[in-house]
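Supplementary Methods. Inverse-folding protocol.

Structures were first reduced to a discrete structure-token string of length 415. This string, shown here, constituted the complete conditioning input.
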């Protein structure tokens, strides 16, 4: 779909995924890294724990489909070479600190004079303008200020966050969408533009239903209750937090337990299966499921119901519960771990997983496929990520540079 576009990728590891997403849709993305390799290549994890910059798994994941060249854009010759590349390109992606490209003479105004149709997409924590423009924006800081951390954990202790630094990927994916929209508008106007993709704002959108929504509508600031996130009101007017994740024999399943007349058929059927397991359903033996809801229940009854369901789920595996749910139209689903996802029948049937050759490793690796499928061809991974400077000769010779020039530039550490 995007095979008519050439994109220059200057991003750091926080935004590699932007160029990867565009390349998945067919864009010709050229990843530009400093001579000797991008700093991200030297951070783990590595293939088979071998700390080799050519075996970096993050690089493999987020730079697949791209071509790769080395270029130091801070040198005089490097800037001139980059400007030549800009003349051949449709978009430039970057995730440096705001103002960095302007400081070296490669900001949007500079690039648009070279190529008026160029789209420059900048991806940062707080954006190109505003009082936080120049603040440091590590993942945990932006995640906290965007509201995401506040929702996780329990109210009697500090909020929690995951260890994997993925927050900036949300901003970078917005950058990919913004780039495509800007290129679409350029088809009408002939003019490029500067796209400002901000991670904090991306998180505010992600969290709006759960955090901003209750405050805007009811003046309420949500509290943290771990896995028990679905709040219901009991007979005495108090709030009860109904779990959304339940432990089973080999992991967890997800279930939002609904108590209302429309869910009565499901709940009665569930009670039958619970009793077949030899589990007493206590006071719910004569509960009027067709008429009653959470508002008719005491806290003691609510806790009793949680204990009944917990016992039942612990008797069964994820696969058993999924089979039960699909055959009886229960609203529950397994919480898949990495091993489950790799063998999930729906993904296998659709050919989602792709074996990609890595000749330098002497093997192939399994990669996830594209997020969408179309009638016009494959979306997703086509080839492995580039080695350091793998496509220097190809790309630079397109610019008319001779082998002798390239050798001299390499000697000077420009490429």
């Amino acid at each position: 779909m995007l095979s008519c576009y050439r994109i220059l990728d200057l991003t750091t590891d926080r935004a590699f995924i932007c160029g990867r997403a565009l390349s998945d849709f067919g864009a010709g993305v050229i990843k530009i890294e400093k001579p000797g390799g991008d700093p991200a290549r030297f951070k783990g994890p590595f293939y088979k724990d071998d700390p080799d910059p050519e075996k970096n798994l993050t690089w493999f994941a987020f730079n697949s489909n791209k071509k790769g060249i080395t270029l130091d854009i801070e040198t005089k010759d490097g800037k001139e070479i980059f400007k030549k590349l800009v003349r051949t390109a449709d978009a430039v992606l970057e995730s440096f600190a705001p103002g960095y490209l302007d400081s070296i003479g490669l900001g949007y105004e500079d690039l648009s004079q070279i190529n008026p149709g160029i789209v420059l997409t900048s991806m940062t924590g707080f954006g190109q303008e505003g009082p936080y423009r120049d603040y440091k924006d590590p993942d945990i800081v932006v995640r906290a200020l965007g509201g995401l951390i506040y929702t996780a954990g329990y109210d009697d202790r500090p909020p929690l966050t995951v260890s994997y630094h993925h927050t900036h990927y949300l901003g970078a994916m917005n950058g990919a969408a913004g780039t495509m929209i800007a290129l679409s508008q350029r088809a009408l106007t002939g003019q490029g533009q500067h796209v400002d993709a901000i991670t904090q704002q991306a998180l505010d959108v992600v969290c709006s239903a759960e955090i901003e929504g209750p405050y805007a509508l009811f003046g309420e600031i949500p509290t943290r209750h771990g896995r028990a996130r679905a709040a219901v009101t009991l007979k005495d007017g108090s709030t009860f937090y109904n779990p959304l994740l339940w432990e089973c024999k080999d992991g967890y399943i997800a279930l939002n337990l609904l108590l209302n007349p429309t869910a009565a058929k499901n709940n009665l059927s569930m009670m039958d299966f619970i009793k077949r397991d030899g589990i007493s359903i206590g006071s719910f033996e004569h509960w009027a499921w067709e008429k009653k809801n959470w508002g008719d229940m005491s806290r003691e009854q609510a806790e009793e119901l949680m204990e009944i369901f917990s016992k039942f789920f612990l008797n069964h595996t994820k696969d058993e519960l999924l089979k039960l749910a699909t055959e009886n139209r229960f609203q529950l689903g397994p919480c898949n771990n990495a091993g489950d996802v790799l063998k999930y029948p729906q993904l296998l049937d659709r050919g989602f997983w792709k074996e990609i050759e890595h000749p330098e490793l002497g093997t192939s690796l399994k990669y996830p496929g594209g997020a969408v499928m179309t009638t016009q061809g494959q979306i997703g991974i086509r080839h492995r990520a580039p080695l350091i400077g793998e496509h220097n000769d190809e790309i630079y010779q397109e610019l008319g540079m001779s082998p002798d020039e390239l050798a001299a530039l390499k000697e000077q550490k420009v490429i």
